[in-house]
Amino acid sequence: MIGDIHGAHKALIQCFERSGFDYASDRLISLGDACDGWPEVDKVFNELCSIRNLVYIIGNHDKWALNWADTGETPYVWLVQGGKSTTECYPNGMIPEHHRLLIQADEYYIENNQLFVHGGIDPGRPIAEQERETFIWDRNLVNLALYKKELDIEEQMSPFVRVFVGHTPTLNYGSDLPIKACEVWMMDTGAGYYGKLTMMDLDTGTIYQSDPAPQLYPDHPGRM
């Protein structure tokens, strides 16, 4: 499983090399937001499309990029949060293979009572009744888990034994490593900004990380 990539192809390759990831036999669950930020969004999607067993979960930046691919619209709020890097990777529009990956992306994925979602969920409602916007944007579950962590409260908030999310950078809480709070694992370790890209082996819990993204792209501002 891997957190938010944000166009950092070099960081993605480092994670694959350091983990010994096998494109043919291993499976990758991506928590979304492969686009917007660093200047190699197209290379990131090429890499993901070459993985035989890929589960791709749509993120809020993916949704912005998909809307641009479908309509040509470039809202300012998207461009200044990394969207410009995505449009520059596709001067003639997003190529069909990458467009198809976003169209077919999952809103969430469940396996062995573990939930993988980009933003979050409402733990008080059945997941089948929740909206796409919640899955890609919501931070209420993360905020509640962090609040309980501050109080040293370790309790289950959802029906799932583990919930893996991206979207909310752990850098905001002083860490470039994943943060566990209750059953929630925060896996966006800030690769879109000045942090690292993080990959986790779900069987062993082993963490693999890239170098800090700005060191890999010294001449590009990323999402700063």
Compute the number of helices. Answer: 8
Q: Please tell me the total number of domains.
A: 1
Report the CATH superfamily. Metallo-dependent phosphatases
Overall pLDDT metric? 97
From the spread of the alpha carbons, the general shape counts as: globular
Distance between the termini: 25 Å
Beta content: 5-15%
Q: Helical percent range?
A: 25-40%
Q: Can you name the CATH architecture?
A: 4-Layer Sandwich
Rg = 16 Å
Number of strands: 9
- Structural class comes to alpha/beta
Q: Any idea of the CATH class? A: Alpha Beta
* Unreliable parts: none
Outline the biggest β-sheet.
5 strands, mixed
Write out the strand line-up for the largest beta sheet, numbering strands in chain order: 3-4-5-7-6
N-to-C order of helices and strands:
HEHEHHHEEHHEEEEEH
The name of the CATH topology is Purple Acid Phosphatase, chain A, domain 2
